[in-house]
Amino acid sequence: MNSYLTEFKRLNREVCKRCSGDTAILKKEAKDFPAIVAKFQGQAKKQTQSLGNKETDHEVCFAALLEELGFQFLLKKKKGDHLKLLPTLVNGYYYIYQVNGSQQSLDFQTILVYDNTIILTVTYDLKHTTTDTFYLNDGWFLENIVYVVTHQRTAFTKTLIALGQHIPSEQEKQVYAKIAEAKKQLNSEKNTESSSLIVVYRFANRYRCTKFTDDWSLERFNEVISFLA
Question: Is the whole model's pTM more than 0.85, yes or no?
């Protein structure tokens, strides 16, 4: 099993190295990978209100990279569905898309399966922007999640590879904790004004890439490589 574990970690380091070293990898179009698009669409729910299930170009490109390195796609129509496949899986490397379901955070998870058991996982969340800000929406940076942030802070497109806990400053973490608690309190209060209106408080936060200098980004990348070692 040790050889599988060593190789799994190496493959995930290779994912990060390639994304960091060649921004063109995530800039291709989804139509260039029709087989992957078909897999993703086969996972989408039918007859729902959501129009947010459609895969993005950079998500398809990331999946193409995973498959090039030997990860196999596991169909997961709803959260946890892939676990039902474990008794049938041979030892090897797999990945799932939309880890927590459509329109939820966490885009990909790579999985080491050995003896029909999940031994280790690495989770990725992808962000993409053609400006100097990207959307966090109602989410925040999560600990030990690998963030792949493709941004264009200058005239050149770059990709930040960083663990969630290492992106925001301590001050930013404190600010977010404060407003998150306020949102939690607001959502816990019962609406007594109307029996029909359901009020849900959500964020629409964005994050600036201005501190993503080459030196700072290299430090974050090295932290990820150490984490994956």
Answer: yes
